[in-house]
UniProtKB/TrEMBL annotation:
PROSITE patterns: THIOREDOXIN_1, THIOREDOXIN_2. This is Inositol oxygenase. It comes from Blomia tropicalis (Mite). It catalyses: myo-inositol + O2 = D-glucuronate + H2O + H(+). Its EC number is 1.13.99.1. Pfam families: MIOX, Thioredoxin. SUPFAM superfamilies: HD-domain/PDEase-like (SSF109604), Thioredoxin-like (SSF52833). Belongs to the myo-inositol oxygenase family. Binds 2 iron ions per subunit. GO terms for cellular component: cytoplasm. Fe cation binds at residues 136, 161-162, 232, 259, 292.
Length: 448
């Protein structure tokens, strides 16, 4: 793995983390959630297929050709990321993440601070291709500035367009951070990458409402009404529109929100959902994509020298006292745990002797409803846990720990228990929707 380019120390008063090659990788496995696997204080290895397959790396006829070649490490990572994404990105998931990530009640961060932090995301791709994220940000911005010197909002857009990737540092799995995005709530279009190979396990495929061309949407309703798969585009868009003094123009918001929406801006699908405004904005997104390149190039920008110019733009379009209120869920403020119970002594230690409220999830790998309930529980626990009322989620595979399952008289799964001080305070069997889970946890939290 390559090392990071050191940052200018005078960016902001920010304590840069030390590199540590022994840190856990965030591979987008199913146990990841915004609060499950903290990466705060460590590097996160990330691979953004949308960036990796930019046209600068391919001859035109090979541009964005994805293969299922399992021998090629990068191609395998790309395929696995999309497989996880296309299995788990559902309407419920995206709405849930939107709710969880836009509470904006955990921390504040300035733009420059966020840019520095972004450098702890280490691009895990072809070493001939990758760049430190801050270099990519400034390089994109400077390319735009050269071609559009008067459009200062466009320069700032280039600088901040990938800031939403910071979600990966707070435990969000990579399939919910990077890669191409696509609409939910209607049929998945043919131009989505790996459309044929990766969607078969997506629960939305079985929902009649979501499987026509229009799905739940009206013709030409406008992309603003469309729920997109959750990723860094949508998150950064939400951060911006929730900023009380943000004054970036529509073009900037479209670029931020849809630059990874390749099935639309490059694939030519989903035009039946577009409003006139979407079509007006499309050329801006395509113009932006000309500069959002991701190749090593000799013109590495001098970040130190550029800071004052871009800080002025931040002050102009995203003003705020000292730190702009870019709010993010702050891992250290929550500190809850989501874990799989390994054995009986693990159960005793982490469940029965746990001072926090523990939600106990009995599941099996072959159980379809469990595959829906477990991510739902992870999200709910993540979003409801606070420093004063911490909640942990303990997952028990009934096939591996049948003694524990027997003690709790589990005869059907999923079986969910709320445990406080080693004692059962509530329980249910089977599926529950988000509202029901919410009240289940609220009720359990009220117990002492
Ligand atoms: Fe991006
Ligand atoms: Fe980018």
């Amino acid at each position: 793995m390559r090392t990071l380019t050191p940052l200018a120390s005078n960016l902001v008063d920010f304590d840069l983390r030390q590199m540590d090659s022994n840190l856990p990788r965030n591979d987008g496995n199913e146990s990841s959630s915004p609060t499950a696997s903290s990466s705060e204080g460590s590097d996160v290895f990330i691979l953004d297929p949308s960036e990796l397959f930019r046209p600068e790396h391919k001859a035109p006829e090979k541009y964005r050709i994805y293969t299922t070649n399992q021998d090629d490490y990068i191609q395998k990572r790309v395929f696995d990321t999309y497989k996880a994404m296309h299995t788990n990105q559902t309407m419920n998931f995206a709405l849930d993440r939107l709710k969880a990530w836009t509470r904006f009640d955990k921390a504040e961060m300035g733009i420059m601070e966020a840019l520095e932090k972004l450098n702890s995301l280490v691009d895990e791709s072809d070493p001939d291709v990758d760049l430190p994220n801050i270099v990519h940000a400034f390089q994109t911005a400077e390319r735009i500035r050269r071609s559009h010197p008067k459009l200062d909002w466009f320069h700032l857009t280039g600088l901040i367009h990938d800031l939403g990737k910071l979600m990966a540092m707070y435990g969000e799995p990579q399939w919910a951070v990077v890669g191409d995005t696509f609409p939910l709530g209607c049929a998945f279009a043919p131009s989505i990458v790996y459309r044929e190979e990766t969607f078969s396990d997506n629960p939305d495929l079985k929902d009649q409402r979501y499987n026509t061309n229009y799905g739940i949407y009206e013709p030409n309703c406008g992309l603003k009404k469309v729920v997109m798969s959750w990723g860094h585009d949508e998150y950064m868009y939400q951060v911006l529109i929730n900023h009380p003094k943000m004054s970036l123009p529509q073009q900037a918001l479209y670029i931020i929100r849809f630059h990874s929406f390749y099935p639309w801006h490059t694939g030519g699908d989903y035009f039946h959902l577009c409003s006139a405004q979407d079509l007006d904005m499309l050329p801006w997104i395509r113009e932006f994509n000309r500069f959002d390149l991701y190749s090593k190039s000799p013109d590495v920008p001098d970040v130190d020298e550029l800071i004052p110019y871009y800080q002025k733009l931040v002050d102009k379009y995203l003003p705020g006292p000292v730190k702009c209120p870019i709010a993010m869920i702050h891992q250290s403020a929550i500190v809850n745990e989501i874990f799989k119970v390994q054995d009986e002594s693990d159960f005793k230690q982490k469940v029965l002797n746990n001072p926090n409220l523990v939600i106990l999830d009995f599941y099996a790998t072959w159980c379809g409803p469990c595959k829906i309930m477990t991510p739902r529980l992870e999200s709910m626990v993540g979003s409801k846990s606070t420093p004063n009322a911490k909640i942990d989620l303990a997952k028990v595979d009934v096939d591996e720990l049948d003694t524990v399952a027997g003690e709790y008289e589990v005869s059907s799964i999923p079986s969910i228990f709320a445990i406080r001080n080693g004692k059962i305070v509530d329980q249910f069997v089977g599926m529950r929707d988000d509202d029901q889970l919410d009240s289940f946890i609220e009720k359990a939290l009220a117990t002492k």
